[in-house]
Specification:
Radius of gyration of chain B: 13 Å
Strand content of chain A: over 45%
Largest sheet of chain A: 7 strands, mixed
Order of helices and strands of chain A: EEEEEEEEEEE
Number of strands of chain B: 11
Number of helices of chain A: 0
Radius of gyration of chain A: 14 Å
Largest interface: A-B, 26 and 23 residues
Shape of chain A: globular
Structural class of chain A: mainly beta
Strand content of chain B: over 45%
Number of strands of chain A: 11
Oligomer: heterodimer
Distance between the termini of chain B: 38 Å
Helix content of chain A: under 10%
Chain lengths: ~120, ~110
């Protein structure tokens, strides 16, 4: 089945630094990828939708200058947390939807394993 | 505004019992209702999904029941096993736009021997 890989799975950084998280679709092309944030014991909150070749669409309340999203190719989207602070510590998860005409249904999302960010 | 309401938030079931998780939605544009299973430290994995043109879908021990008029759907796990212990999320999405999926708050299921 479809596989989405996230890297790194765990990152610790100092306050003020920037951290990049990669989301790759390994065996399919993804025109759309989604980035979520999950706090402990809470649900997944959609942060933004990224589409290959165009600007990401951010959900209300999400700072686009804080969370930079780049969907560079049909298999790669990156989330950069700029000038990270302790309150940015969270579990970040991406999901990808296979391009139309693929094996999966239009609404089948495949999730990555997540990336845990800890900002000291 | 919570578009997908899920209950209960935690559930303890004995091995062999039936686990039932309920969800309700508000947006009538939703036409896709997946359930995800998440283990600690991992991303969610699609468990089973239903569209509103059917009232029930069964895959192995997992069954979704869907009530379009009440805008409710539920997950039943038959013969629950300790390995089913995880957090379950219901979700709802629509076929238009970017096909975003909105998640419920999650239910932490613990199946005890």
């Amino acid at each position: 089945g479809a596989v989405v890989s996230q890297h790194p799975s765990w990152v610790i950084c100092k306050s003020g630094t920037s951290v990049k998280i990669e989301c790759r679709s390994l065996d399919f092309q993804a025109t759309t990828m989604f980035w979520y944030r999950q706090f402990p014991k809470q649900s997944l909150m959609l942060m933004a939708t990224s589409n290959e070749g165009s600007k990401a669409t951010y959900e209300q309340g999400v700072e686009k200058d804080k969370f930079l999203i780049n969907h560079a190719s049909l298999t790669l989207s990156t989330l950069t947390v700029t000038s990270a602070h302790p309150e940015d510590s969270s579990f970040y998860i991406c999901s990808a939807r296979e391009a139309s005409g693929g094996r999966s249904g239009a609404n089948v999302l495949t999730f990555g394993a997540g990336s845990r960010l800890t900002v000291l | 505004q919570q578009q997908v309401k899920q209950s209960p938030q935690s559930l303890i079931v004995q091995k062999g019992g039936i686990s039932i998780i309920n969800c309700a939605y508000e947006n009538t544009a939703f036409d896709y209702f997946p359930w995800y299973q998440q283990f600690p430290g991992k991303g969610p994995a699609l468990l089973i999904a239903i569209r509103p043109d059917v009232s029930e879908k069964k895959e192995g021990r997992f069954t979704i029941s869907f009530n379009k008029s009440a805008k409710q759907f539920s997950l039943h796990i038959m013969d629950s096993q300790p390995g089913d212990s995880a957090t379950y999320f219901c979700a709802a999405g629509d076929s238009g736009g970017y096909q975003k999926v909105t998640f419920g708050i999650g239910t932490k299921l613990q199946v005890i021997p």
